[in-house]
Amino acid sequence: MPSSNEYKRQIMDDLAQGNVESLDDNTVSSGDEYDNFDDFARRSSREERHSLFRRSFHPDRIPPQQMEPELQKAIAQIKPNERDDVAREFFNHLKKRGLNERELEQQLGLSTHHPNRMNADDVSKLASFTYHNHPDIFQEVLADQPALVKFLSNPLVGAALGAIAAKWFGRR
């Protein structure tokens, strides 16, 4: 069984050689081409990212026992200011569902409910809670905060992201 890095490298090699699958989605105009994930995250529209994540990344395909360690590793690798943004987005969306930050702090055992003071473990707990209980919010935050996505490396997660990457690079 190849390692996660080897698997990701193979997916990217296949994509670079034009070996892509169509997602039958025409949300990307033929003029939009992206060189890599960072380019896509920087230049794509919010609507484009949301559409691709809704169509390609389905939390029910990745078991929680595989996703949780991935989230912990990914959140630990993103920059502190990006981690703050991810936490803030989760709280904003959860607040719209009637979940109070202080209640979540107590329920999840967070060290604080202030996004700018949260450590990686706190944000991981918040992300895991959202993944389990509000998968639609989880997808929204991934689309709004794409920095988190590039650090996910589990093969099942990579397969879901490979489908998204195929769409990004498929127009080349």
Total strand segments:
0
Report the principal-axis shape: globular
Q: Average pLDDT across residues?
A: 74
Q: How many domains?
A: 1
Helix count? 9
Tell me the structural class.
Answer: mainly alpha
Portion of residues within helices = 55-70%
What does the largest sheet look like?
none
Q: Oligomerization state of this entry?
A: single chain
Q: C-alpha Rg, in Å?
A: 16 Å
Q: Give the amount of beta strand, in percent.
A: under 5%
Low-confidence stretches: 19-31
In whole angstroms, the N-to-C terminal distance is: 30 Å
H/E series: HHHHHHHHH
Structural descriptors:
172 residues, mainly alpha, 9 helices
Tell me what you see in this structure.
The protein is built from 9 helices and no strands. Helices cover 63% and strands 0% of the residues. By secondary structure, it is mostly helical. The protein has one domain. It starts with a helix and ends with a helix. Helix 1 packs parallel to helix 9, helix 4 (64-77) runs antiparallel to helix 7 (120-133) and helix 7 (120-133) packs across helix 8 (135-144).
